[in-house]
Amino acid sequence: KERFSQRFGAAIKSGGRSDSLKKILFAELTLDANALRHYVKTVFSELIVRESENGEWWKTVWVEGSDFASVRAEPDVARDIYNVVSHWFRVKGLCVDREVRASGGSIDMLVTGAANSEISRCGVEVKFAHHQNVIHGVSHQLPDYMDDLRAEAGIYMVIWCKGDKFSKPTNYASMEELADELKRNVPKEKRIDVVSVNASYRPAPSKRI
User: Fold this and answer.
1) Pairing relation of β-strands 95-102 and 191-198?
2) 130 vs 53: CA distance, rounded Å
3) For residue 117, is pLDDT > 90?
4) SS3 168
5) In this structure, are residues 40 and 153 in contact, taking their beta carbons and an 8 Å threshold?
6) Distance (Å, whole) CA 204 – CA 209
7) Nearest 5°: phi and psi at 162?
8) Residue 149 is inside which H or E element, if any?
9) Average pLDDT, stretch 12-34?
10) N or C: which end of the chain has fewer CB within 10 A?
11) How far is residue 202's CA from residue 103's CA, in Å, rounded to a whole number?
């Protein structure tokens, strides 16, 4: 949520973010498809994946008061992710848009940069791991969006919620197993990175046995 975005902004000023994020944040960004793809992936990895693993971002995925038994609507979670990451793109002179219409639907985010009369685009699609079309999302949905938007790169962010209080998806035992399956289904001609986020319930350290 927005409070996480504000906290991250203060963290970078105080040295609270990782060296990898600070390195690319303060380095000059050479705008081509590979550089944009790397920057977008690093921002998501550091601000969402890392914070979910080591902090409390994972809690924002769950319906408040549900005792971690119900997750929020996917578009709402995607909006919160946008709120966290968007200003990290804008400080590099990149444009980031939400819910961009494409191929009869809408992609969650589109990051665009321009330099020397060249435009580079990276599409971002967010999916829950238990979504019934999670494989189709990386094999067809995101690639179709990328084609329509002329995006050279893509990020497929998958949020894993399975754990002690939530049993889905039932057909994958671990986040890593699903990630491997997703990577196998990325079209060979597409530059798509699969980014997995662990948002499964975990008790506070003081309550762990």
Assistant:
1) unpaired
2) 19
3) no
4) coil
5) yes
6) 10
7) -65, 135
8) helix 142-149
9) 61
10) C
11) 38
* Amino acid letter, 82: Y
Phi first, then psi: give them for residue 105, nearest 5 degrees: -140, -150
Helix (H) or strand (E) run with residue 20 in it: helix 19-26
Paired strand residues for 126: 157
Total count of residues recorded for the chain: 209
Joined tokens for residue 156: 């497929």
pTM of the model: 0.87
∠ CA 151-157-162, nearest 5°, is: 160
* Run of H or E residues at 155: strand 153-160
Helix (H) or strand (E) holding 194: strand 191-198
Q: What is the 3-state secondary structure (H, E, C) of 66-135?
A: CCCCCECCHHHHHHHHHHHHHHHHHCCCCEEEEEEEECCEEEEEEEEEEECCEEEEEEEEEEECCCCCHH
pLDDT in tens, 191-203: 999 999 999 998 8
Token reading at 86? 């968007």
The residues facing 163 across adjacent strands are 166
Half-sphere exposure of 55 (CA within 13 A, CB side): 15
Q: Which residues contact 84 (CB under 8 A, 6 or more apart)?
A: 4, 5, 8, 47, 48, 57
* Spatial separation of the C-alpha atoms in residues 107 and 92, rounded to whole Å: 22
Task: Please give the C-alpha separations between residue 207 and each of 190, 198, 202, in angstroms, as whole numbers.
Answer: 44, 19, 10
In angstroms, the CA 184 to CA 64 distance is 35
At position 89, the amino acid (one-letter code) is: F
